[in-house]
Amino acid sequence: MKKQQAARTNGKSAEASRNNRNPRNSMKAGNKNRRHDSVQIEKDIPGVPVAKNDEVIIDIIGMNHDGEGVGRAEGYTLFVQGALPGEKVSVKVLKTKKQYGYAKLLNVLKASPDRTAAPCPIYDKCGGCQLQHLSYEGQLAWKRQHVVDALERIGKLNVASSMGENHTSELETVQAAHNAGNSEAGNHGGNKASSASLHEITVLPTLGMAEPWRYRNKAQVPIGVTDGGLVGGFYARSSHRIIDMETCLIQHDKNNEVVARVKAIARRFGISAYNEETGGGLLRHVVVKVGFRTGEMMLVLVTNGEEIHHVEEWIAAIRDELPSVVSICQNVNTRKTNVIFGDVTRVLWGSEVIYDYIGDVKFAISARSFYQVNPVQTEVLYGKTVEYAGLTGNETVIDAYCGIGTISLFLAQHAKEVYGVEIVKEAIEDARVNARLNGMEHVTFEVGASEDVIPRWKEEGIEADVIVVDPPRKGCDPRLLETILEMKPERVVYVSCNPSTLARDLRVLEDGGYRTVEVQPVDMFPHTVHVEVVIGMQRIDT
């Protein structure tokens, strides 16, 4: 650690100045060779060997869930944006806490073989992507490991160290045992929790994209003012400062074109940009949606007030310059908030919805409706969901967080009956429209909390063979997990966007008599830290 010690001793006058402002006590035993002024700095946070502005050389031993490299300075953890596992780097300490600190990457002294040059010209400023400096193969491996770590650390689950040659048929093997009436797995002294805890869980390699760029079908671009001019792009990391964007490499090309043209038209007509600090200005966000299969596009102008100056000229210019746009909407949001949409949406011109497909299922997409942003990988994700549900055409399925019915209708192609429940009224209205759009009369949607609606369905004689959950990042409501355990479906399929809450919920289901059969990470958001996961579970005592 001599290099670290040398780096810390270079700023003696600055450290002395800090000591004069913050007198410290003497250092504990074992650190007698350190300078007295450095000793006093460290005493402010006992046991911390570095201080703000120190420059140190560290080895990066891992990466956290935010994509930051994890290194150690004399056992003290430092998080370093842009550093990769296996690298030796020089860093400048930015902030220290009792257990960990943050540092800025200065130089990569020994690079990871997975390091690559980020192709985006604003990658080092924009906060939209976190992993462009990591090869795509490296990203997929890290995302799998992120899932494994959460299952082991939070869920206390036993993940198999290797998948073996027959991993693809494991789910079929368990289901075949169930169909044959094999209940041996649940009959070891009645201790289902122990049985569930001891078996090995297979986590498959992350399913990535053949072309992991231009995959987003929706752009939500904040508009603001920089140097007196209207700009639109993405927020800089850990701030609300807008980085102007000409093109985004993970957005569909047409989305980039519409955003660029709309900004130019707004400047031409003197449209004012929203000022987050004063609450003045008109244009807050530009939201663009594109149907990958249909090519139809929707533009939503989020404004800080009802009136849009030169609205007719603006609409005419958009129609003339952007013929793919078939819907122009306005959403009014006058609240001082970072929430994008307000309560009022109206059509300025064209259709109220655009259409797109996931597989063979057609969906109507309105200005406010939630729709998966990566349709290519959504089809992959839902295909695994159908596989894990084990549908033969005779099953009754409950979709516990159905949204606008994307998973429900995808499952309905293979099930006898599907029931979807969602707490957001507008989403259920969209789901019913989508069911009618596809002529699916065997699908029922209801508004309400899953933990309230599903027990009532059970009282009405609706018995689910499969329950599918796709909760928000906070995971399943505890009462829903209790409801699943009481309803005892043969299979549970859990679709998750947060490995931590997934692991927590799997522990509850495993302790309640279910066995996690297989875990499939899916890369829905290449070049970001986010990973989607779909899990197949089987009831042990069936």
UniProtKB/TrEMBL annotation:
CDD domains: AdoMet_MTases (cd02440). The active site is at residue 497. InterPro entries: MeTrfase_TrmA_AS, MeTrfase_TrmA_CS, NA-bd_OB-fold, SAM-dependent_MTases_sf, TRAM_dom, U5_MeTrfase_fam. Residues 1-25 have a biased composition (Polar residues). Residues 47-107 form the TRAM domain. Belongs to the class I-like SAM-binding methyltransferase superfamily. RNA M5U methyltransferase family. Residues 1-43 are annotated as: Disordered. GO terms for biological process: rRNA base methylation. This is 23S rRNA (Uracil1939-C5)-methyltransferase. One of its GO terms (molecular function) is rRNA (uridine-C5-)-methyltransferase activity. S-adenosyl-L-methionine binds at residues 372, 401, 422, 470. Keywords: 4Fe-4S, Iron, Iron-sulfur, Metal-binding, Methyltransferase, S-adenosyl-L-methionine, Transferase. PANTHER family: RNA M5U METHYLTRANSFERASE (PTHR11061), TRNA (URACIL(54)-C(5))-METHYLTRANSFERASE (PTHR11061:SF30).
